[in-house]
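Hi L., both proteins are below.
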Amino acid sequence: MRNDNKMSIFLSLILRHKPEVIDIELDAEGWCPVEELIEKINKHGKKLDFERLKRIVDEDKKTRYSFSDDMKFIRANQGHSVKVRLNLVAIKPPEILYHGTKEAFVEKIRTSGIQKMKRHHVHLSKDLETATKVGARRGIPVILIVEASRMYEDGYVFYCSENGVWLTNHVPVSYIKEYK
């Protein structure tokens, strides 16, 4: 299923960052017609049919994508750098959340907190294992503990995406501790 992994990465590029690569437009909420997506990916020289797309969505361990109820539309659940409105509902977070990163970013985080950068939100994990996997994508992971409940009590807004990723706009330094 290595080719499915490559296709999933390509779908992530299209549905989160650069839909123009295959000349599609996402609607205001990030949805794309499934038939159009398949057609334009195939025109782009890759092979995709509905069964393969469904398998990629169903087997994605990070649950990156969702189909509409009628399965005619697809979108990424979060992580967009293009402007979309995901209609997330604010929710009280658990007491602590985790953020996995790499050593090269830690000094900047120590001075300015966790920034969303080009994405819509900062991504946080509810468990140490997920944060470790995220941080390990680019080397040795550094895990940060975010005092989410305290942030919430101080007026910061949190969301939880369909796939369980916790989202907020910024995590100030005063709410961050390094996991030892």
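That was the first. Here is the second:
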Amino acid sequence: MPYETPQPAFVLVRPQMGENIGAAARAMLNFGLDRMRLVAPRDGWPNPQAVAMASGAGRLLDEALLADDLAGAVADCHFVIATTARMRGLTKPVFSPERAMAETARRVAAGERVAVLFGPERAGLENADVACANAVVTVPVNPDFASLNLAQCVLLLAYEWRRATADVVAERTDMARADWASHQEVERLADHYEAQMQEAGFFFPETKAESMRTNLRNMWSRMPLTQADVRMLHGVLRQMVRWKQRDG
């Protein structure tokens, strides 16, 4: 069953290799997209190589809309974006992938149907294909090697779609069944180390002892310690003291 989430259709125009169609399906499903449309696949349809490469995303291939030409594939769409790495001599809005998917998300949320076109592997979309689009999306790739694999291009746009429509956390810490140490627990750890370092004669000369203690306290306060970290560091110091006492 297709996802109920409104989303764009990804249209593969005259794709040549079944493996790339399957890889594109897998990339789409990775990011919650399942509206694939195929325009005149070179090797016919269905394609066993596509199924093998889809690796779990086979339902996208089963549900893919098959069209004889581009006009038929996008006939129901309100806005069409063409992917291309080359200047075409056509006056069009040119989006970055991020901007293209933000605009797509805005239009889809407003109830519009949006299609994103991907060209065949050999040379990409033809000028006639791009002329049918309302806008172009271009990836900022190395100008000396601008060609992207079909599935890679699909993956990149699918990722930007996900970023535009999902709550993507920029950074997080997985706690692995641990809790952060409290300020009091860190203070006790600092006290433990400071006492042992005092006994070992670390704070020398006396004129620098106070600034050395301050720097150590500052170091402990900067460290993001879990309760497990604190217990381990207490244990490390106790064992070192026991070892020194045995040695003495």
